[in-house]
C-alpha cells in the first residue's frame, strides 16, 4: 500500500474543504434551529387551533341541544295551533248553525205575526159587522 504524502497545498485544500464543510454545517445547524423554532410555533398554533376546535364543538353541541328544544317547542306549538284551528272551525260551525236557527225562528215569528194580524183583522171585521148590525 502506498502512502501519499501530504504537502502544504493538499493540506491547504483539505483545510479549505473542512472550513467550507464546517461553514455548511453551521448554516445547516442554523437552518435546523430555525426550522425547530418554526415547528414549535406551528405546534403552538396547532394546539391553539385544537383548543378552539374543542370550544367550537362545545358550542355546536349546545346549539344542537337548543335546536332540539326549539323543534320540540315548535311541534308543541303546532299541536296547539291545530287544536285552536279545530276549535275555531267548531265555533264557526256552531255560529253558522245558530244563525240558521235564528233565521228559521225569525221566519216562524214572521209567519206567526202575519197569522196574528190576519186573525186580528178577522176579529175586528167581525166586531165591526156586529156593531154595524146592532145599530
Amount of helix:
over 70%
Proportion of strand residues: under 5%
pLDDT averaged over residues: 93
Describe the sheet with the most strands: none
Topology pattern, helix = H, strand = E: H
Q: State the separation between the terminal residues, measured CA to CA.
A: 185 Å
What does this structure look like?
- Helix content is 94%, strand content 0%.
- The protein is rod-shaped, with a radius of gyration of 56 Å.
- The chain has 135 residues and is mainly α.
- The model has no long low-confidence stretch (mean pLDDT 93).
- It contains 1 helix and no strands.
Short description:
Helix content is 94%, strand content 0%. The chain is mostly helical.
Using brief descriptors, characterize the structure shown.
about 140 residues, rod-shaped, 1 helix, single chain, mainly alpha, about 0% strand
How would you summarize the topology of this molecule?
Elements: H1 8-134
Amino acid at each position: 500500500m502506498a502512502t501519499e504524502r501530504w504537502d502544504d497545498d493538499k493540506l491547504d485544500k483539505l483545510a479549505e474543504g473542512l472550513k467550507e464543510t464546517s461553514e455548511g454545517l453551521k448554516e445547516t445547524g442554523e437552518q435546523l434551529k430555525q426550522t425547530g423554532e418554526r415547528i414549535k410555533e406551528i405546534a403552538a398554533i396547532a394546539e391553539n387551533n385544537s383548543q378552539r376546535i374543542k370550544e367550537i364543538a362545545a358550542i355546536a353541541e349546545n346549539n344542537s341541544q337548543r335546536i332540539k328544544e326549539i323543534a320540540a317547542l315548535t311541534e308543541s306549538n303546532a299541536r296547539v295551533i291545530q287544536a285552536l284551528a279545530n276549535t275555531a272551525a267548531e265555533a264557526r260551525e256552531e255560529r253558522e248553525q245558530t244563525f240558521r236557527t235564528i233565521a228559521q225562528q225569525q221566519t216562524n215569528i214572521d209567519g206567526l205575526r202575519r197569522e196574528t194580524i190576519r186573525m186580528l183583522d178577522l176579529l175586528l171585521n167581525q166586531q165591526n159587522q156586529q156593531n154595524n148590525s146592532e145599530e
